[in-house]
Amino acid sequence: MLSDFSEKIQSLFKKFRGYGKLTEKEINEICRDIRLLFLESDIALSATKKIVEEIKNRLSTLEFTTETSPGTLVSNIVREELINLLGKPGGIDFSEKPTLVMMVGIQGSGKTTTSAKIANYFATKENKKPLLVGADVRRPAAQLQLEKLSQQIKVPFFTDKDPFLACEGALNLARSKGYDLIIVDTAGRTHVDEELLDELKALNERFHPKNNILVIDSMMGQEATKVAKAFFETIPLTGAILTKFDGDARGGAAFSLREVTGVPLIFLGVGEKIQNLEKFDPVRVVNRIVGMGDIEGLIEKVSDIKIDTSKKPPEEIEKWNFDTFLESMRQIRKMGPLEELLSMIPGFSSIKQMKDMIPDEKQMKRIEAVMLSMTPKERKKPEIIDASRKRRIAKGSGTSIQEVNQLLKQYEMFKKMFKSKNLKKGIKLPNFPIGRI
Ligand SMILES: Nc1nc2c(ncn2[C@@H]2O[C@H](COP(=O)(O)OP(=O)(O)OP(=O)(O)O)[C@@H](O)[C@H]2O)c(=O)[nH]1
């Protein structure tokens, strides 16, 4: 999440810490650095100008105290202004029952997946009764995708032969069954076109939804603001959801959207899975970016995971084998990419050596593939893995014999260490089972 931006802002904070005083020269330098960072991050010019101006004004009138160093004061101001730029979060208006939530956006933005994510969020976290409606009647595949997702999350699905009939029917059904919210997945096109906008306008005039939510791909960078403007000129948008935030390194859309369009963010899509939806919280996003972590988010993630207690690892570490490691790895991966999780721990992202020790998703998959290519017997008793078995495992997992050897070596080290009870004498754990291979 915003890895490039995060790295750059943290190195700027390091630079600011070196300032002994803040004269006009330093203030100009800070503003120049921030401007450059924003422009390199594909953030809209108006948003860049706004934050630089705010920072400059605050720094020019700053009162120094002896307790806080100039560098810390500057970093605090920049952090606060990043939070202000992201803007206060929006929400879903539940003042009507059922409330209509119209999901709009261009094709591929993640609209269908996000409709299901929201339904799941409100059903599981807020005890609401959602109804999912497929209104993209021209694309049977989109209807099918939403229907499948609705079955997966056990939320009812409704559709009809045109979007107006679908909404009408859904409203009647919701009123009779007491549903709280109707989430309508409207049609998307490859780009914003007149036909799409006309249909939305007509739906809006007919049903006056309390919620018109724009789903937008954060990877679009500041281009996202153009799409948002086109929708905003057609219907009154009440909020936006940025999808694929997990893959966005620069933050161009996130930091531009509010300033350019005024539309508040409500949720962030942070992965392909249904659970990968976060309520937008600017403080938590910024704290993560600047390396202050997000303990609250980490606790939420851990408590969301349903641990299968029948698969709990044995208490005695001597009994651990590759089955144990495979299972723990799966439990950890359910929470999302490892680096993402660790970035939620305050200070972690600033320790470069620690980051280098952590395998990325691709490496995790390779380690998992090696373990999965072992037979159940091999996983229980890895000592039986001889040269020909290693060849078979490497071939089956699409890795190399060296990689299989490396994993087995790390396993051996792990076992030896516990046998010799060296751990009690303060010896560091090897980076297994999450080490690089
Ligand atoms: N990494 C990541 N992928 C996402 C996220 N949200 C959606 N996707 C993926 O983006 C792709 C497009 O998502 P859809 O929900 O089909 O997009 P859509 O806007 O409904 O597109 P159409 O149905 O074609 O109109 C799918 O592969 C999703 O799994 C997210 O937050 N993170």
From TrEMBL:
Domain SRP54-type proteins GTP-binding: 264-277
Subcellular location: Cytoplasm
Matching InterPro entries: AAA+_ATPase, P-loop_NTPase, Signal_recog_part_SRP54_M_sf, Signal_recog_particl_SRP54_hlx, Signal_recog_particle_SRP54_M, SRP, SRP/SRP_N, SRP54
Gene Ontology molecular-function annotations: 7S RNA binding; GTP binding; GTPase activity
Domain notes: Composed of three domains: the N-terminal N domain, which is responsible for interactions with the ribosome, the central G domain, which binds GTP, and the C-terminal M domain, which binds the RNA and the signal sequence of the RNC.
Family: Belongs to the GTP-binding SRP family. SRP54 subfamily.
Name this protein carries in UniProt: Signal recognition particle protein
Species of the source: Thermodesulfobium acidiphilum
Gene: ffh
